[in-house]
Design brief:
Bound molecules: adenosine-5'-triphosphate, magnesium ion
CATH class of one domain: Alpha Beta
Oligomer: single chain
Strand order of the largest sheet: 6-7-8-3-9-10-11
Length: about 260
């Protein structure tokens, strides 16, 4: 007799009926309304939408930086709403890396110190292990030469790469990036995109990138579009490299 098929593994992330209301009464803002989707390990996606549509609100909920008014966020089968604060923080630190528009590096600290900060918070006790992780991560980002420099001595593009290294140092399953190239010129935008893509391919880290930049969005594998707090589109996007491909070559299909 054929063996029963294995139960499918839980997806990396399941978002179900997420609502977020800021404030109350007359001043309440319904920033998200019933957002639901699933996200697999190693996916590479963009979230797009106009200013004020709810992108950062959604990313903050996915990143466990904020709690929904209702609805659930489930990572690898664990409903985050059922966890106490310490476990939630622990999970956030081990599972998720953040990259923001502004690098938020600590200027008085070296590149090395900035990069290992999340590993220190995660309780990696051993200097040799910290060094090893930092070197590996800085290597992924072509930053080996600047480990001992002060963060404020770097160029804007280098600082953003250090911020990406810091997001990766705990080997997260998912990187959440909110306008990571919003402050960069075209060259550095391309560089950051290429780094995200190569890290995704080399390590299987999933990426969700909030972006206003069509060049970035159309080079991801999936585009989620938010409007007025609603998820209005969720489409597979044909992968194209950064090398110039006409915008009309985009192929989008429903997920
Ligand atoms: N902390 C908050 N308190 C009250 N209202 C908020 C708060 N954060 C966001 N909002 C409101 O929620 C809505 C969604 O905001 P959000 O920041 O998620 O938009 P966004 O899509 O990220 O916009 P942008 O592209 O400008 O960054 C907006 O109407 C915004 O004013
Ligand atoms: Mg935003």
């Amino acid at each position: 007799m054929a063996e029963a098929p294995l139960a499918p593994a839980a997806p990396l992330l399941v978002v179900d009926s997420l609502d977020k209301v800021y404030g109350s009464g007359d001043t309440a803002t319904h920033a998200l309304q019933g957002v639901s989707f699933e996200f697999a390990e190693a996916e590479f996606a963009a979230i797009i939408g106009q200013s004020g549509s709810g992108k950062s609100t959604l990313l903050n909920l996915l990143g466990l930086l904020d709690t929904p008014t209702s609805g659930t966020v489930t990572y690898r089968g664990t409903d985050i709403g059922s966890l106490g604060k310490p476990r939630r923080a622990e999970l956030r630190n081990s599972l998720i890396g953040f990259v923001f528009q502004f690098h938020h590096l600590l200027p008085e600290f070296s590149v090395y110190e900035n990069v290992v900060m999340p590993a220190l918070i995660a309780g990696v006790p051993d200097d040799a292990e910290l060094r090893r992780r930092a070197e590996e991560t800085l290597g992924l980002l072509d930053l080996e030469g600047v480990a001992d420099k002060n963060a404020n001595a770097l160029s804007g593009g280098q600082k953003q790469r250090v911020a990406i290294a810091r997001a990766l140092v705990n080997r997260p399953a998912l990187v959440l990036a909110d306008e990571p190239t919003g402050n960069l010129d075209t060259t550095n935008t391309g560089l950051v995109y290429d780094l995200f893509r190569s890290i995704n391919e080399q390590t299987g880290t999933a990426f969700i990138i909030v972006t206003h930049d069509r060049n970035v969005a159309q080079r991801t594998d999936r585009i989620l579009e938010v409007r007025d707090g609603l998820l209005i589109a969720d489409e597979r996007n044909r992968y194209i490299g950064w090398g110039d491909v006409p915008a009309g070559a985009r192929r989008r299909q429903p997920v």
